[in-house]
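Retro notes (design track)

What went well: tokenization of the new backbones is finally stable.
What didn't: we kept losing track of which sequence belonged to which structure.
Fix going forward: every design gets posted as structure first, then sequence, in one message. First example under the new rule, 102 residues:
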């Protein structure tokens, strides 16, 4: 099941299409070059970066996914994660992203 944090981080090239992208993901439609930043599926990591179309696979219908950010392209997703981590560290002095974003 897909869940969204109350504050979604969006890369600069996706800001104008933010709502359309969220609607496409929620309604299980194909997207082009949209990447989701989610809480990591492994406790050893902080975030996962995945193509939004991966969420169409049946596995993700049974798995809880919490989306924190959206980006246009993998490079922008990586840069957005970097910015998010710097914000968390600047404000808390740690990297406890789950507590910070919930």
């Amino acid at each position: 099941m897909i869940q969204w944090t109350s504050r979604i981080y969006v890369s600069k090239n996706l800001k104008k299409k933010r709502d359309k992208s969220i609607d496409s993901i929620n309604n299980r439609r194909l997207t082009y070059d949209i990447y989701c930043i989610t809480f990591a599926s492994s406790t050893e990591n902080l975030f996962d970066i995945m193509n939004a179309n991966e969420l169409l696979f049946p596995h993700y219908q049974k798995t809880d996914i919490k989306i924190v950010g959206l980006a246009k392209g993998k490079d922008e997703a990586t840069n957005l994660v970097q910015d998010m981590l710097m914000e968390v560290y600047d404000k808390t002095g740690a990297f406890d992203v789950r507590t910070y974003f919930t």
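Added context from the reviewer: The longest helix spans residues 74-92.
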